[in-house]
Amino acid sequence: MEPLTPPQPVAEAAIRIDSHLSGTGQRTLADDVLDGLTRPFKELPPKHFYDARGAELFDRICELPEYYPTRAERAILTERAGDLAQLTDAVELVELGSGTAAKTRVLLDALDQAGTLARYVPMDVTERMVRDCAEELTEEYPGLQVHGVIGDFERHLGRIPQAAGRRVVAFLGGTIGNFPPGSRRRILREIAALLGPDDHLLMGTDLVKDPRVLEAAYDDDQGLTAEFNRNVLLVLNRELDAEFDPEDFDHVALFDSQHEWIEMRLRARREHTAMVRALDLPVHFDAGEEMRTEISAKFTRERLEADLHAAGLELVSWLTDPEALFALTLSRPASGTDESTGSGDAR
Ligand code: AVJ
Protein backbone atom coordinates (compact mmCIF):
# COMPACT_ATOMS: atom_id res chain seq x y z
CA MET A 1 0.00 0.00 0.00
CA GLU A 2 1.22 3.46 -0.86
CA PRO A 3 1.01 6.13 1.84
CA LEU A 4 -1.68 8.74 1.28
CA THR A 5 -0.29 11.67 -0.68
CA PRO A 6 -1.94 15.04 -1.22
CA PRO A 7 -3.73 15.35 -4.58
CA GLN A 8 -1.23 15.69 -7.40
CA PRO A 9 -1.58 18.86 -9.48
CA VAL A 10 -1.08 16.79 -12.65
CA ALA A 11 -4.00 14.48 -11.83
CA GLU A 12 -6.21 17.45 -10.97
CA ALA A 13 -5.57 19.23 -14.23
CA ALA A 14 -6.33 16.01 -16.12
CA ILE A 15 -10.03 16.21 -15.27
CA ARG A 16 -12.53 18.89 -16.12
CA ILE A 17 -16.29 18.45 -15.75
CA ASP A 18 -18.94 20.83 -17.09
CA SER A 19 -22.56 20.43 -16.07
CA HIS A 20 -25.49 21.72 -18.08
CA LEU A 21 -28.28 20.03 -16.21
CA SER A 22 -28.77 22.00 -13.00
CA GLY A 23 -32.33 21.29 -11.96
CA THR A 24 -33.71 20.85 -15.47
CA GLY A 25 -34.11 17.07 -15.09
CA GLN A 26 -37.41 17.28 -13.22
CA ARG A 27 -38.70 19.92 -15.61
CA THR A 28 -38.21 17.87 -18.74
CA LEU A 29 -39.77 14.87 -17.01
CA ALA A 30 -42.78 16.96 -16.00
CA ASP A 31 -43.07 18.41 -19.51
CA ASP A 32 -42.80 14.96 -21.08
CA VAL A 33 -45.46 13.54 -18.75
CA LEU A 34 -47.84 16.42 -19.24
CA ASP A 35 -47.39 16.24 -22.98
CA GLY A 36 -47.19 12.46 -23.39
CA LEU A 37 -49.87 11.27 -20.96
CA THR A 38 -52.57 13.66 -22.13
CA ARG A 39 -52.43 12.47 -25.74
CA PRO A 40 -54.97 10.09 -27.22
CA PHE A 41 -52.10 7.58 -27.67
CA LYS A 42 -50.09 7.83 -24.47
CA GLU A 43 -46.34 7.96 -24.75
CA LEU A 44 -43.24 8.57 -22.62
CA PRO A 45 -39.70 9.10 -23.99
CA PRO A 46 -37.30 6.26 -23.09
CA LYS A 47 -34.68 8.54 -21.56
CA HIS A 48 -36.59 8.49 -18.26
CA PHE A 49 -35.90 4.77 -17.74
CA TYR A 50 -32.41 5.45 -16.49
CA ASP A 51 -32.49 6.31 -12.81
CA ALA A 52 -30.08 4.32 -10.60
CA ARG A 53 -32.31 1.25 -10.63
CA GLY A 54 -33.07 1.57 -14.35
CA ALA A 55 -29.37 1.86 -15.18
CA GLU A 56 -28.68 -1.23 -13.09
CA LEU A 57 -31.48 -3.17 -14.75
CA PHE A 58 -30.16 -2.15 -18.15
CA ASP A 59 -26.68 -3.41 -17.22
CA ARG A 60 -28.23 -6.75 -16.30
CA ILE A 61 -30.23 -6.82 -19.55
CA CYS A 62 -26.93 -6.54 -21.41
CA GLU A 63 -25.87 -9.86 -19.85
CA LEU A 64 -29.04 -11.72 -20.84
CA PRO A 65 -28.76 -14.55 -23.36
CA GLU A 66 -31.61 -13.01 -25.41
CA TYR A 67 -30.10 -9.50 -25.52
CA TYR A 68 -27.41 -9.86 -28.18
CA PRO A 69 -26.69 -6.19 -29.13
CA THR A 70 -24.15 -5.47 -26.39
CA ARG A 71 -22.18 -8.66 -27.01
CA ALA A 72 -22.29 -8.27 -30.77
CA GLU A 73 -21.10 -4.67 -30.63
CA ARG A 74 -18.32 -5.52 -28.19
CA ALA A 75 -17.20 -8.36 -30.45
CA ILE A 76 -16.97 -6.02 -33.46
CA LEU A 77 -15.10 -3.42 -31.44
CA THR A 78 -12.66 -5.96 -30.06
CA GLU A 79 -12.03 -7.37 -33.52
CA ARG A 80 -11.67 -4.01 -35.30
CA ALA A 81 -10.46 -1.46 -32.72
CA GLY A 82 -6.93 -1.53 -34.18
CA ASP A 83 -8.22 -0.81 -37.68
CA LEU A 84 -10.46 1.94 -36.36
CA ALA A 85 -7.55 3.58 -34.57
CA GLN A 86 -5.54 3.46 -37.81
CA LEU A 87 -8.35 4.80 -39.95
CA THR A 88 -9.20 7.67 -37.63
CA ASP A 89 -5.80 8.57 -36.22
CA ALA A 90 -7.76 10.20 -33.43
CA VAL A 91 -6.34 12.57 -30.85
CA GLU A 92 -9.70 12.93 -29.18
CA LEU A 93 -12.57 10.57 -28.44
CA VAL A 94 -15.96 12.13 -27.72
CA GLU A 95 -18.54 9.66 -26.44
CA LEU A 96 -22.27 10.37 -26.37
CA GLY A 97 -24.20 8.54 -23.65
CA SER A 98 -20.92 7.24 -22.25
CA GLY A 99 -22.45 5.53 -19.18
CA THR A 100 -19.86 3.35 -17.48
CA ALA A 101 -17.67 3.51 -20.61
CA ALA A 102 -17.32 -0.28 -20.52
CA LYS A 103 -16.94 -0.78 -24.27
CA THR A 104 -15.03 2.47 -24.59
CA ARG A 105 -11.95 0.96 -23.02
CA VAL A 106 -11.50 -1.27 -26.04
CA LEU A 107 -11.31 1.84 -28.22
CA LEU A 108 -9.21 3.81 -25.77
CA ASP A 109 -6.73 0.91 -25.61
CA ALA A 110 -6.37 0.86 -29.37
CA LEU A 111 -6.00 4.63 -29.67
CA ASP A 112 -3.59 4.63 -26.75
CA GLN A 113 -1.46 1.99 -28.45
CA ALA A 114 -1.48 3.93 -31.70
CA GLY A 115 -0.02 6.73 -29.57
CA THR A 116 -2.32 9.49 -30.80
CA LEU A 117 -4.85 9.74 -27.98
CA ALA A 118 -4.77 12.90 -25.83
CA ARG A 119 -8.31 13.58 -24.65
CA TYR A 120 -11.54 11.74 -23.84
CA VAL A 121 -14.80 13.72 -23.73
CA PRO A 122 -17.60 11.64 -22.20
CA MET A 123 -21.11 13.09 -22.30
CA ASP A 124 -23.89 11.63 -20.19
CA VAL A 125 -26.91 12.79 -18.20
CA THR A 126 -25.76 10.87 -15.13
CA GLU A 127 -23.25 13.00 -13.26
CA ARG A 128 -22.00 10.14 -11.08
CA MET A 129 -21.11 8.06 -14.15
CA VAL A 130 -19.19 10.89 -15.81
CA ARG A 131 -17.25 11.69 -12.62
CA ASP A 132 -16.44 8.07 -11.77
CA CYS A 133 -15.29 7.22 -15.26
CA ALA A 134 -13.16 10.38 -15.44
CA GLU A 135 -11.37 9.33 -12.26
CA GLU A 136 -10.87 5.75 -13.38
CA LEU A 137 -9.72 6.56 -16.88
CA THR A 138 -7.19 9.22 -15.88
CA GLU A 139 -5.68 6.56 -13.62
CA GLU A 140 -5.78 3.83 -16.25
CA TYR A 141 -4.35 6.04 -19.00
CA PRO A 142 -1.62 8.26 -17.60
CA GLY A 143 -1.45 11.56 -19.45
CA LEU A 144 -5.03 11.32 -20.73
CA GLN A 145 -7.14 14.46 -20.34
CA VAL A 146 -10.78 13.84 -19.53
CA HIS A 147 -13.26 16.63 -20.16
CA GLY A 148 -16.64 15.35 -18.99
CA VAL A 149 -19.85 17.01 -20.12
CA ILE A 150 -22.94 16.35 -18.04
CA GLY A 151 -25.81 16.92 -20.38
CA ASP A 152 -28.47 15.52 -22.65
CA PHE A 153 -27.37 14.86 -26.21
CA GLU A 154 -30.80 15.95 -27.42
CA ARG A 155 -30.15 19.44 -26.08
CA HIS A 156 -26.52 20.05 -25.22
CA LEU A 157 -24.42 18.85 -28.14
CA GLY A 158 -23.47 22.49 -28.72
CA ARG A 159 -21.67 22.44 -25.35
CA ILE A 160 -19.11 19.87 -26.44
CA PRO A 161 -15.74 21.66 -26.26
CA GLN A 162 -13.76 22.67 -29.35
CA ALA A 163 -11.85 19.74 -30.80
CA ALA A 164 -8.34 19.27 -29.43
CA GLY A 165 -7.27 17.61 -32.68
CA ARG A 166 -8.49 14.86 -34.96
CA ARG A 167 -11.72 13.68 -33.39
CA VAL A 168 -13.86 10.57 -33.24
CA VAL A 169 -17.38 10.90 -31.92
CA ALA A 170 -18.63 7.53 -30.63
CA PHE A 171 -22.35 6.91 -30.31
CA LEU A 172 -22.55 3.27 -29.31
CA GLY A 173 -25.12 0.73 -28.18
CA GLY A 174 -27.75 1.44 -30.79
CA THR A 175 -29.15 4.40 -28.83
CA ILE A 176 -29.72 6.37 -32.06
CA GLY A 177 -32.53 3.83 -32.62
CA ASN A 178 -34.49 5.37 -29.75
CA PHE A 179 -35.32 8.35 -31.93
CA PRO A 180 -38.01 8.41 -34.61
CA PRO A 181 -36.74 9.17 -38.13
CA GLY A 182 -37.11 12.96 -38.02
CA SER A 183 -35.38 13.47 -34.66
CA ARG A 184 -32.81 10.87 -35.63
CA ARG A 185 -31.74 12.95 -38.61
CA ARG A 186 -31.75 16.15 -36.59
CA ILE A 187 -29.44 14.56 -34.02
CA LEU A 188 -27.18 13.18 -36.73
CA ARG A 189 -26.96 16.65 -38.27
CA GLU A 190 -26.04 18.10 -34.89
CA ILE A 191 -23.39 15.42 -34.44
CA ALA A 192 -22.09 16.13 -37.95
CA ALA A 193 -21.68 19.76 -36.89
CA LEU A 194 -19.15 18.57 -34.28
CA LEU A 195 -16.95 17.09 -36.98
CA GLY A 196 -14.21 18.75 -39.00
CA PRO A 197 -13.21 17.43 -42.43
CA ASP A 198 -10.77 14.86 -40.94
CA ASP A 199 -13.05 13.70 -38.11
CA HIS A 200 -15.26 10.62 -37.84
CA LEU A 201 -18.47 9.34 -36.32
CA LEU A 202 -18.43 5.78 -34.96
CA MET A 203 -21.99 4.61 -34.43
CA GLY A 204 -23.61 1.35 -33.32
CA THR A 205 -26.96 0.30 -34.78
CA ASP A 206 -28.97 -2.85 -34.34
CA LEU A 207 -29.98 -4.54 -37.61
CA VAL A 208 -33.29 -5.82 -38.99
CA LYS A 209 -33.62 -9.57 -38.47
CA ASP A 210 -36.11 -12.34 -37.64
CA PRO A 211 -38.84 -10.69 -35.52
CA ARG A 212 -38.75 -13.61 -33.09
CA VAL A 213 -35.12 -12.89 -32.28
CA LEU A 214 -35.88 -9.19 -31.91
CA GLU A 215 -38.93 -9.68 -29.74
CA ALA A 216 -37.13 -12.15 -27.46
CA ALA A 217 -34.39 -9.55 -26.93
CA TYR A 218 -37.03 -7.15 -25.58
CA ASP A 219 -39.12 -9.70 -23.70
CA ASP A 220 -36.70 -12.02 -21.92
CA ASP A 221 -37.64 -15.13 -19.95
CA GLN A 222 -36.38 -13.74 -16.64
CA GLY A 223 -38.65 -10.72 -17.01
CA LEU A 224 -35.81 -8.24 -16.56
CA THR A 225 -36.91 -6.13 -19.52
CA ALA A 226 -40.47 -6.11 -18.16
CA GLU A 227 -39.08 -4.83 -14.85
CA PHE A 228 -37.00 -2.22 -16.69
CA ASN A 229 -40.10 -1.10 -18.58
CA ARG A 230 -42.27 -0.84 -15.46
CA ASN A 231 -39.46 1.00 -13.65
CA VAL A 232 -40.40 4.18 -15.51
CA LEU A 233 -43.61 4.20 -13.43
CA LEU A 234 -41.54 4.18 -10.24
CA VAL A 235 -39.54 7.11 -11.60
CA LEU A 236 -42.82 9.04 -12.06
CA ASN A 237 -44.00 8.05 -8.59
CA ARG A 238 -40.80 9.32 -7.00
CA GLU A 239 -40.08 12.40 -9.09
CA LEU A 240 -43.62 13.65 -9.65
CA ASP A 241 -45.39 12.26 -6.61
CA ALA A 242 -47.48 10.01 -8.86
CA GLU A 243 -49.31 6.89 -7.77
CA PHE A 244 -48.89 4.33 -10.52
CA ASP A 245 -49.03 0.71 -9.43
CA PRO A 246 -46.60 -1.28 -11.60
CA GLU A 247 -48.86 -4.29 -10.97
CA ASP A 248 -51.55 -2.55 -13.01
CA PHE A 249 -49.50 -2.89 -16.20
CA ASP A 250 -48.27 -5.67 -18.49
CA HIS A 251 -45.02 -5.42 -20.43
CA VAL A 252 -45.47 -5.52 -24.21
CA ALA A 253 -42.68 -5.72 -26.81
CA LEU A 254 -43.39 -6.11 -30.49
CA PHE A 255 -41.62 -5.59 -33.78
CA ASP A 256 -43.37 -3.14 -36.08
CA SER A 257 -42.25 -4.49 -39.44
CA GLN A 258 -43.51 -1.48 -41.36
CA HIS A 259 -41.43 1.04 -39.40
CA GLU A 260 -38.74 -1.54 -38.66
CA TRP A 261 -38.59 -0.78 -34.98
CA ILE A 262 -39.28 -2.54 -31.71
CA GLU A 263 -41.96 -0.91 -29.61
CA MET A 264 -42.18 -1.34 -25.89
CA ARG A 265 -45.45 -0.51 -24.25
CA LEU A 266 -47.14 -0.78 -20.88
CA ARG A 267 -50.67 -2.16 -21.14
CA ALA A 268 -53.21 -1.38 -18.41
CA ARG A 269 -54.60 -4.60 -16.92
CA ARG A 270 -57.77 -2.86 -15.75
CA GLU A 271 -59.56 0.41 -16.14
CA HIS A 272 -58.18 2.88 -13.62
CA THR A 273 -57.04 6.44 -13.01
CA ALA A 274 -53.58 7.20 -11.62
CA MET A 275 -52.90 10.59 -10.10
CA VAL A 276 -49.73 12.56 -10.90
CA ARG A 277 -49.85 14.86 -7.90
CA ALA A 278 -47.00 17.23 -8.77
CA LEU A 279 -48.91 18.13 -11.95
CA ASP A 280 -52.35 17.80 -10.44
CA LEU A 281 -53.02 15.49 -13.36
CA PRO A 282 -55.29 12.47 -13.23
CA VAL A 283 -54.33 9.95 -15.94
CA HIS A 284 -57.09 7.62 -17.02
CA PHE A 285 -56.48 4.21 -18.59
CA ASP A 286 -59.07 1.99 -20.20
CA ALA A 287 -58.63 -1.72 -19.62
CA GLY A 288 -56.09 -2.90 -22.22
CA GLU A 289 -55.01 0.64 -23.09
CA GLU A 290 -51.36 0.86 -24.06
CA MET A 291 -48.79 3.54 -23.41
CA ARG A 292 -45.68 3.54 -25.61
CA THR A 293 -42.45 3.74 -23.61
CA GLU A 294 -39.76 3.12 -26.22
CA ILE A 295 -39.05 2.64 -29.88
CA SER A 296 -35.80 0.94 -30.81
CA ALA A 297 -35.20 1.19 -34.54
CA LYS A 298 -33.53 -1.65 -36.41
CA PHE A 299 -31.52 -0.73 -39.49
CA THR A 300 -30.59 -1.97 -42.92
CA ARG A 301 -27.43 -0.70 -44.53
CA GLU A 302 -29.54 1.23 -47.05
CA ARG A 303 -31.55 3.03 -44.40
CA LEU A 304 -28.50 3.90 -42.38
CA GLU A 305 -26.68 5.27 -45.41
CA ALA A 306 -29.73 7.38 -46.28
CA ASP A 307 -29.85 8.78 -42.73
CA LEU A 308 -26.12 9.54 -42.78
CA HIS A 309 -26.42 11.18 -46.15
CA ALA A 310 -29.28 13.38 -44.95
CA ALA A 311 -26.96 14.58 -42.18
CA GLY A 312 -24.13 15.40 -44.59
CA LEU A 313 -22.13 12.28 -43.70
CA GLU A 314 -20.77 9.47 -45.81
CA LEU A 315 -20.02 5.89 -44.88
CA VAL A 316 -16.36 4.93 -44.54
CA SER A 317 -16.73 1.43 -43.12
CA TRP A 318 -19.55 -0.90 -42.33
CA LEU A 319 -18.54 -3.47 -39.74
CA THR A 320 -20.72 -6.32 -38.51
CA ASP A 321 -20.38 -9.37 -36.32
CA PRO A 322 -20.19 -12.79 -38.03
CA GLU A 323 -23.97 -13.29 -37.71
CA ALA A 324 -24.71 -9.75 -38.96
CA LEU A 325 -26.83 -9.02 -35.91
CA PHE A 326 -25.40 -5.56 -35.28
CA ALA A 327 -23.45 -2.94 -37.22
CA LEU A 328 -20.74 -0.54 -36.22
CA THR A 329 -20.27 2.15 -38.84
CA LEU A 330 -17.57 4.69 -39.35
CA SER A 331 -18.61 7.78 -41.29
CA ARG A 332 -17.20 11.22 -42.02
CA PRO A 333 -18.37 14.56 -43.39
CA ALA A 334 -19.27 14.02 -47.04
CA SER A 335 -16.72 15.51 -49.38
CA GLY A 336 -17.86 18.11 -51.90
CA THR A 337 -21.18 18.85 -50.25
CA ASP A 338 -20.70 21.18 -47.32
CA GLU A 339 -24.18 20.99 -45.94
CA SER A 340 -26.68 18.60 -47.48
CA THR A 341 -28.87 19.20 -44.46
CA GLY A 342 -32.37 17.97 -44.35
CA SER A 343 -32.62 16.77 -47.93
CA GLY A 344 -34.02 13.35 -48.65
CA ASP A 345 -37.20 11.91 -47.24
CA ALA A 346 -37.29 11.25 -43.51
CA ARG A 347 -38.78 7.78 -43.64
C1 AVJ B 1 -29.92 1.40 -24.74
C2 AVJ B 1 -31.55 2.19 -26.25
C3 AVJ B 1 -29.84 0.74 -27.02
O1 AVJ B 1 -33.03 -0.05 -27.43
O2 AVJ B 1 -31.95 -1.90 -27.14
C4 AVJ B 1 -32.88 -2.50 -23.88
C5 AVJ B 1 -32.52 -0.01 -24.45
N1 AVJ B 1 -34.64 -1.28 -24.03
N2 AVJ B 1 -33.96 -3.27 -23.64
C6 AVJ B 1 -32.23 -0.77 -26.80
C7 AVJ B 1 -33.32 -1.24 -24.13
C8 AVJ B 1 -35.02 -2.53 -23.72
C9 AVJ B 1 -31.54 -0.20 -25.56
N3 AVJ B 1 -30.74 1.03 -25.87
- Mean model confidence by pLDDT: 92
Cα distance spanning the termini: 59 Å
- Bound ligands, each once: N,N,N-trimethyl-histidine
- The shape is globular
Broad structural category = alpha/beta
Cα-atom Rg, whole angstroms?
Answer: 21 Å
Strands side by side in the biggest sheet: 1-4-3-2-5-6-13-12
Enumerate the spans where pLDDT stays under 50 for 5 or more consecutive residues. 339-347
Q: Profile the largest sheet.
A: 8 strands, mixed
Strand % is 15-25%
Order of helix and strand elements from N to C terminus: HEHHHEHEHEEHEHHEEEEEHEE
* Oligomer description: single chain
Q: How much helical structure, as a percent, in the residues? A: 25-40%
Q: Count of DSSP E strands?
A: 13
User: How many DSSP H or I helices?
Assistant: 10
Would you give an account of this structure?
- The protein has 347 residues and is of the alpha/beta class.
- It is built from ten helices and 13 strands.
- The protein has helices at 9-13, 24-36, 52-61, 69-88, 104-114, 127-140, 181-192, 211-217, 224-240, 301-310, and strands at 15-19, 92-96, 119-124, 145-150, 167-171, 200-206, 249-256, 261-268, 272-276, 281-285, 290-297, 313-320, 326-333.
- The chain is globular and about 60 Å long.
- The termini are far apart.
- The model is unreliable at 339-347 (pLDDT under 50).
- Bound molecules: N,N,N-trimethyl-histidine.
